Structure formats: structure tokens, C-alpha cells
Amino acid sequence: MGSSRKPAPAEPESGALQALDLKPFLKQYLRPGCRLSVAYSGGLDSSVLLHLLAHHRADLDLDLELEAVHVHHGLSPHADRWEAHCADTCVALDVPLRIRRVQVRPSGQGLEAAARQARYDAFASMGVTHLALAHHLDDQVETFFLRLLRGAGPRGLAGMEAVGRRQGMCLLRPLLHLRRSQIETHARLLGVHHVEDESNQEPALDRNYIRHQVLPILADRYPAYRTVVSREMALQGEVSDMLDGLAEQDLAQAAAGLSLDLRALANLSGARVRNALRHWLRQHLGSVPGVDSLHALWIQISSTRPGSELVWRHDGWTVRRYRQTLWLEQANQPQPVGRVRLPWQGEGALPWPLGGELAVAPTVGDGISQARLAEGTWAFMPREGGELFRLADNRPLRSLKKCLQEAAIPPWRRARMPLLYHDGHPVWVPGLGVDARYQAGRDESGWLISWQ
Questions:
Q1: What is the dihedral of CA 96, 169, 125, 312, to 10 degrees?
Q2: Looking at CB atoms within 10 Å, which of 39, 68, 190, 214 has the fewest?
Q3: How many Å from the N-terminal Cα to the C-terminal Cα in the chain?
Q4: What are the pLDDT digits (tens) for 260-302?
């Protein structure tokens, strides 16, 4: 059952709190006047972090706009009381509080992962830009063992970063070097009033099992295990950085946005190709799929002929192959009603109804001649068939279908691409560029178009 604990208040001791001097860390990563949001659950760790920031915000010389953000999951019968506690504490600390209620939908990765994702989704939807999280060293060590047992690679075993990014937010973890026992000591010294989540004692949850059943036994035999694990995580971080650097080199000639040319990787070892593939997927998915899922993709790539069907699905994304190129696409593309026709009169950005965004930027000596824009009717539309296209002045008009085939653009992508038409003639085609008849001259103003 949930409870609320209030350690006996005491005057903070400057020596004891020296390890919690957040000023050097925050000044390194925050600009003056920045809004800093604290992920505040009401528990011990986030309560200590919030109290420290509230009590010392004036000493930071950053003129911070400090706020607390609380996510109400509704998973505990005590959730309403926790919310009320957070509101009372923020009033006492003179810190604005924003609350977001969410519904947690369990996914294939379990309730803990679903709740965590729901929190980050909530923070992102609230417009949070800089999020302070109260993760500490014991959280880090627990994460290491959880990921080790789930078969994570070097990046996963490197653990949480003191500064990272997620869903457009800058994540700051200023307490990551401290043990849980140190934070408990500081809570007593600061007189922090916090709540206890009864689920933290539930042994059915993997993290709790590691925390309460495994690590105490390990500590009896290896008292310094936290130090050893921390060093190993740092080493895995270095290994991960080196592998990322190698992948960037290997992908330089192979990757073009959401496509990956396997021919450019043909002379590499299997290990290097898999490393490049992992890096390419992480760049676009935001995370690396599990070992089994990646293995299934690699088996398809290495055991099927270039012309064979390859379809790999993960978390709303699909990898397909056309000839020797892999294409990454969102699995559930929008299905418009009726004929798609998007008029264009020089706008700089347009959403494409069949998926993605069109961006138009002015330039000189390249792209579509701006002088032609005043003439006729311009619109983005999917390909209808039978069009002719001229790739260069010294080349004849050719079937657009043939041009797309030679450019190795897969059939399913051709059907969804936005083509710019002028009075019914294709002017710009993704992957091909501008028809030579509409190309801006050397010193002429032009428009550069891209589709992401």
C-alpha cells in the first residue's frame, strides 16, 4: 500500500551537500533564461532534485524558468493523492506545476516500458524542451543488468547518458553520479517530504527483482560492484562511439535518407555491414530493434536473391528491398480519398497527403526557374502514367516510367511520390530532379524542392 514519508527536518550541511552542487553541470548545458522542467513523480529521487533546484536556482546565475511536470498514469489507487502531494509541494517551493493525465497502453515490451513511453509522450506534448531527470547511479547499474540479460549491444550496455536527447527534448541527469543511499541522506538533511510507490516493491517487475533480489547478493560478495559496472559502462560507451564512427564511414556512400544501397557495402565483412545496418536504423527509428528482430532482417538480406521479396516490420516501420537497395518506410501510410492534387504557388512548405513533407527553398542557378512560375497552373500530384521527361538538354524526351526504373526507385514508392506538374507536364520528380526544359539558368533565380 502506498505511503507518505517525511524525514525529520534538519539544516543542510554544506559539506554533505557538496556532491549535489548542480551549478557546474547545469551551466554547461543550459542557456540563461532557459525553461527547465523537472520530471516530478513525488518520489524520493525527483523530490530531492526538485528541492535542490528550487532552493539554489538563484545561485545558478542562469535566470532559469523552473517548473515541475507530473504525469498521472492512473495505475495506482494512490495516484490522485500523489498528484495532490506534488501540487502542495510545488506551492510550498514556489515552483509552477503542470500535470498531464495519460492512459498507459501495454505494448509487447511490458507495462514498465509502456508507462515510460507514455511519460515521454506527455512531456513532449507539453512542449518541454529541457527535462531534468532524477536517475542516479543505482538506476544506472540496474539498467546495465537489465539490458545485459535482454541481449543489448555496446550502446545499450553504456547505460543512460548524463545529457541526451529524446523526442526533441534535451534530457539532463545531474544526479547520475550519486548512489541511492547518498540521495536518501540528502533527503533527511533537506527535510524532503516524498511519497512511496508501492509498485517499487513488486518482485514481479524485472527492475525490482534485480534491485531487491540480485544486487544485494552481489554486494555481499563484491562490495565494489557499482564501481566495476560503472567502468564497464564507460568502456562500452567508448566501444559504441567507435562503432558509430565506423558506421558513418561505411554509410557515407551507401545511405541516402531512407534508402540504403547494399552494393556500396558489398566488400565489407558481415560484422561491418550489420553494424552499418544497426546505425542506419537507429538514425531513423530513434532506437535499435532487438537482437532477434535484427537477426531476422539480416537473414533475409544475406540469404535471398536481390530480386526476391524482402519485407521486415518493426514498431510501425517497414524495410523492403528493390533490387540491391533497402527502403525504410512507415508501415501505415495515409490513404487519401479521391484524386490527390496539391496546388502550388511558391509556398515554402507543404504537407503531402500521401505521406511526408514538401520543402521549397529559393536559390540561384539551380532548381526550377522562378520566371516560369507566373505562367500556367502548378500542382503536386502522384504519377498518372504515360508522362515524358527530359533529364538533360542533350538528351531526348523519354518515358518517365523508364527513367524511374533506371533510377532504381521501387514501384510502391513511385505510386506515392509527389510530382510537380506544370499545365499537366511533369517538371520535378523526386530522385530525378528538374526536367531540363524548366531548369533555372546559370544566374537565374530558382526553386529547390525536396520531399522528406
A1: -160
A2: 214
A3: 50
A4: 999 999 999 989 999 999 999 988 887 777 777 888 888 888 8
Q: Which of 142, 137, 140, 135 is nearest to 218 (CA)?
A: 142
Question: How many angstroms separate the CA atoms of 96 and 225, rounded?
Answer: 40
Distances (CA, A) of 123 to 34, 65, 120, 188: 16, 16, 5, 29
| C-alpha cell read off for 26 | 547545469
Nearest CA-CA partner of 244 in 275, 281, 208: 275
Give the pLDDT confidence score for residue 333 in this predicted structure. Answer: 66
Q: Which three cell numbers stand for residue 99?
A: 500535470
pLDDT at position 6 = 43
Closest CA to 197 of 43, 39, 40: 43
Residue 13 pLDDT > 80: no
Whole-angstrom distance, CA of residue 89 vs CA of residue 97:
9
Which residue type does 105 have?
R
List pLDDT tens digits, range 216-254: 999 999 999 999 999 999 999 999 999 999 999 999 999
Q: Which of 95-99, 123-127, 341-345 shows the lowest per-residue confidence on average (mean pLDDT)?
A: 341-345
Eight-class DSSP state of 144: H
Q: How far is CA 286 from the centre of its chain?
A: 4
Residue with cell 507495462: 111
Nearest to 382 by CA among 335, 417, 348, 339: 417
- The SS3 call for residue 265 is helix
pLDDT tens-digit readout, 323-335: 888 888 877 666 6
Distance CA 254, CA 228 (A): 39
Instruction: Return the C-alpha torsion angle 375, 379, 382, 384, nearest 10.
Output: -40
Q: Are 278 and 294 in contact (CB under 8 A)?
A: yes
pLDDT at position 335 is 61
Beta carbons of 189 and 16 less than 8 angstroms apart: yes
Predicted confidence (pLDDT) at residue 15 exceeds the cutoff of 60: no
* Nine-digit cell string for 388: 515524358
Q: Which three cell numbers stand for residue 91?
A: 506551492
> Does residue 172 contact residue 60 with C-beta atoms inside 8 Å?
no
For helices 270-285 and 291-303, what crossing angle results, to 10°? 120
Q: Which three cell numbers stand for residue 384?
A: 498518372
pLDDT, tens digit, 9 for 90 and up, residues 367-421: 888 887 778 888 999 988 888 998 888 888 889 999 988 888 888 888 888 999 9
Q: Which of 76, 165, 89 is nearest to 128 (CA)?
A: 165
The 3-state DSSP class for residue 261 equals strand
Cβ(387)–Cβ(423) below 8 Å: no
Q: Output the average pLDDT for the chain.
A: 86
